[in-house]
Amino acid sequence: MPWRIRRTSMRRRKQRFQGAGVSAEREFSRRRRQNIRDEWRTWLFAFALLGAFAVWSLLTTGLAARFLAAVAGLLGGVLVALWALGGHVSAFQWWIGAEGERDTAQQIEKLGPDWHCEHDLEHGRGNWDHVLVGPAGVFLLDSKVINGTAAAGDDALRSGRLNYPGGLFRSGAKQIKDAIEARLGSRAPWVQAVVIVWGDFPQGHHQEQDVVYIRGDRMNAWLAEQPQKLNGPQRAALTTALQEVRASLAAGA
β-strands 162-165, 191-200: how paired? Predict the structure, then answer.
């Protein structure tokens, strides 16, 4: 599935469950500021050069003026592009990650009213992208944007040099289960770890060692195929527990 960059403002107005991608977006902004601070001399020189070409184009006429104005416009475009990319590709990866989380959130919005999601639960070592509660159970969804071709197997998701071990996703699911159990006791159900893959994932679906890897556009169909495990009161209790988990994490407890 080709990766497409979409406008996000329209999505946010339609969402039932807010907050997808906030942590990644915040990290992108932080890294952009740091990149610009680290390279402030380069940025200052580039802006000075832009100003010089712009002023020079105003002080001359004819073909030379048009050429200088074009150079100034090109340099300005490059600076705008660098700003949008965060000043370095390492920052831009966080922006892409936020887009992946918002793509998953858009799919979640299509689920029926029996489903509830808590997006972007920040904890001490990062964040959980999406914790989803519905008739089929509790799911920890981790969004991954893949630029190359992805393959799942041998307890990992791989694409080129990228390697996401299955243990990472199982650990997150267990932590969510433990946090719920602290509030509901033995009533806490199993939390299924699911990796939502946005990009070229020919397998489409793969399950191994308690981790499900599935292409983003197939997520809702897969969820609909799962047997019902939770009734209404159970889902309500789990939703309340998750909201308490969020509040506790936000308070640093």
Answer: unpaired
The single-letter DSSP state of residue 111 is S
Which residues of 87-223 form beta strands (DSSP E)? 116-123, 126-134, 137-149, 151-152, 156-159, 162-165, 191-200, 205-208, 211-215
Q: Identify whether the C-beta of residue 35 lies closer than 8 Å to the C-beta of residue 83.
A: no
Query: What's the angle, vertex CA 134, arms to CA 96 and CA 191, rounded to 5?
Result: 70
Asked if 121 and 128 count as a contact pair (C-beta separation under 8 A), the reply is: yes
Question: pTM for the complete prediction?
Answer: 0.73
- The predicted-structure confidence for 203-221, as pLDDT tens digits, reads as follows 999 999 999 999 999 999 9
Type of residue found at 227 = P
Two tokens at 225?
């195929």
Long-range contacts of 214-221 (CB under 8 A, 24+ apart): 215/1, 216/1, 216/103, 216/104, 216/107, 216/143, 217/1, 217/107, 219/104, 219/107, 219/141, 219/194, 220/107, 220/110, 220/111
Q: Tell me: the pLDDT tens digits for 88-115?
A: 655 556 556 678 888 898 899 999 899 9
What 8-state DSSP symbol labels residue 17?
S
Residue type, 69: A
The residue among 119, 103, 93, 111 whose CA lies nearest residue 196 is 103
Residue at token pair 């694409």: 159
* Strand duo 191-200 + 137-149: pairing: parallel
